[in-house]
Amino acid sequence: MPLQIQERRPAERNVVKMPKKGIKKMFAVVSGKGGVGKSTVCALIACELQRRGYTVGILDADIGGASIAHLFGLKKEHLNGFFATSKNGIRILSFALLAKDQDRASIWRGPLITNALKQLYDRLDFGELDYLLIDSPPGTSDVPLTLYQYYPLDGIVVTTTPHDLVREVVARSIKMAQRLSVPILGIIENMSHLVCDNCKKKHFVFGNSKSAEVARDANVPLLAQLPLDPKLAELEDKGQVDTYESAEMKKAVDELIRSSSSQAAIE
Length: 267
Ligand code: ADP
Known about the structure:
The chain has one domain (23-266): Rossmann fold (3-Layer(aba) Sandwich), CATH 3.40.50.300. The protein is 36% helix and 19% strand. It contains ten helices and eleven strands. The chain has a nine-stranded mixed sheet, with helices on both faces. Helix 1 (38-51) packs across helix 10 and helix 5 (110-123) packs parallel to helix 6. The N and C termini lie far apart (58 Å). Residues 31, 34-40, 65, 67, 190-191, 226, 228-229, 232-233, 236 line the site of adenosine-5'-diphosphate.
């Protein structure tokens, strides 16, 4: 017999969104599950926007698995008040930098993380920003739900990988955003393929991609298909994500800027 679980409807009506705090555009980078490269995509979008002269911040809201500070080589000693600034000028607010014991947060229950998520935004004081990127907690539980409900998001970017399993997981993330009327700016497929160093042939190591299909079903653009690139992993391990550039990501950011500025102009 199938398991019957009572659906709990999100309390859409009574929620008051938190203030925008001088931020022109606020995008959350989300994923249906962990480990697909959501933090990587979030950091790469931020760096690409920053290269174009925008003022950019990142809020690492993936409290249980905060990794943004690590990707930029930032530690507690780099904090200036509540945030740290990366070498390329991106302002970063992360629980990993503020918490006494980040390891404890990875075993916190949902309600505690949900509270921390609200408090983190209360602490946010980046001043005027063109773009704030939010590294969202993965999944479709109460924690990302809180982000969608309380944060004044202008849209989300969904990160995925080509694995078959991820297809359903992504569809769930998209449905949650649609139910809460959060615009979906597009899908970025990460680890799409591996390019051979010698012959430059693309190898689809995780099988044929389903992302184009998922994007078509949801009526959202597939913004990019990023390769699995050992150089990117190495730079991230060294805290130098800001030095990585990719043509695919540039194209994705062109589209993001275009679609977000059609919502309201950024000077
Ligand atoms: P998530 O935020 O979804 O948990 P991360 O961005 O932290 O995922 O990435 C997980 C791991 O995979 C990290 O070690 C990261 O360096 C690596 N990684 C992510 N994307 C790529 C890629 N395109 N090529 C190589 N390594 C990658």
